[in-house]
Amino acid sequence: MAAWRAPLRQALAEIDHERAETLPLRRAEAVERAVAMAGRGGRAAVAEFLGVGVNTIDKMLHLARTSPAVTVRSLPPGTFRRLLAVEASEVAPLARSQWEALAWLIRGIAFDETWINEPGVLLADEIGDAELDAGFDPARIAAACRSWSRVQALAVIDCCLRSDLGTLPTSTEPGATDDND
């Protein structure tokens, strides 16, 4: 996969999030402030200014009053994607064939909330149950999975589910070791 695809996909996802969730709420909050500043008859005045009906203003006011504020208690869009990317880049390298075997295995797993607690251990157990070919050195893959922090394991799972293996550290041979091993 071309190296430019993953960053482009990430940027487009952030833009889609902004367009679908953040921007309508920011508009609604701006309308709410304008209505409050206008005082009596503010809904009608703002509706006329925007060229929309009062019902539209009422819907925007409802959205602004019932949704969590955009600027309060919210990390910027893409924060978690960037966190996962950093965590995935810091795991010990595996050979490309090992990442591909792990990704193949991960794509067949039905994930649920139990995976949040110990994803690396559960992934290592899945590797043991899968009976991977010895050429992949499943014991090394399982050991790597067990060594990952919770966030690193979830980051690797995310990369594998998205077929974004190019972002994972790669060694030249299945048995190769790194200082992080």
Explain what the structure shows:
The chain is an all-alpha fold and 181 residues long. Helices cover 62% and strands 2% of the residues. The protein has a two-stranded parallel ribbon. Helix 6 (119-130) runs antiparallel to helix 7 (138-147). It starts with a helix and ends in a 10-residue tail after the last strand. The model is unreliable at 176-181 (pLDDT under 50).
Give me a quick take on this structure.
The chain has 181 residues and is mostly helical. It is built from 8 helices and 2 strands.
Report the end-to-end length measured between terminal Cα atoms: 27 Å
Mean pLDDT: 86
Q: If helices are DSSP runs of H or I spanning 4 or more residues, what is the number of helices?
A: 8
Strand content: under 5%
Helix content bin: 55-70%
Q: Indicate the structural class.
A: mainly alpha
Count of strand segments: 2
Cα gyration radius (Å): 24 Å
Return the string of H and E elements.
HHHHEHHHHE
Question: Tags for this entry?
Answer:
single chain; 2 strands; mainly alpha; disordered C terminus; 181 residues; 8 helices; elongated; two-stranded parallel sheet
Write the layout of secondary structure elements.
Layout: H1 5-38, H2 42-50, H3 54-66, H4 79-89, E1 94-95, H5 96-106, H6 119-130, H7 138-147, H8 150-161, E2 170-171
Parallel strand pairs: 1-2
Helix pairs in contact: 1-2, 1-3, 2-3, 4-8, 5-8, 6-7
